[in-house]
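Hey, I'm writing a tutorial for new members on how sequence and structure tokens pair up, and I'd like a real worked example in the thread rather than a made-up one. If someone can provide the structure for the chain below, I'll link this post from the tutorial.
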Amino acid sequence: MLEMLLFRSIRQGDTKPLAKALLARFGSIAEVLGAPEHLLMEVKGCGPVTAFDIKFVFALTQRMIRSDIREKTVLSSWSKVMDYCVAAMAHEPREQFRFLFLDKKNALIADEVQQVGTVDHTPVYPREVIARALQLSASAVILTHNHPSGDPTPSKADIEMTKTIANIGAQMGIVVHDHIIIGKNGHASLKGLKLF
């Protein structure tokens, strides 16, 4: 599949060596698509046009998954939520927090990146999360963030922050359905782990 994608921007010559080089460098087709353009161009044979085409396919895939979520009730299709979160965040080089704001029927109102941090830390302010939920008239929220290290194990800070947001939200009539941590090697649900 990667060879066919590369053929779109490299019309002459064999695309197999470049496909193999990209997979060797990044590990999987998902990681190739998620890699930043400047890192793609470090691989011999991958110029700006090819890197742009790869990132275009990645962006198109994210939009397709996102529109699929927007058209359905979120909690009746938990696997779609997970697919979207993984596609949107698993290969980000820096930690980012996203919030999926939901209405009374658990349909998606908004998906927003609230904070982008470093490779291992992102500050999150519970007041801002709840204030934004109130602005959107959201009844519920799903917290999600990535661990660029690849390990989705929740930290003590992740657990405490989730409890704080859930407690403040409960006082305002806003339910925190879950906090999902996304890593390259899987994902973790704090609710599933009974951590809040």
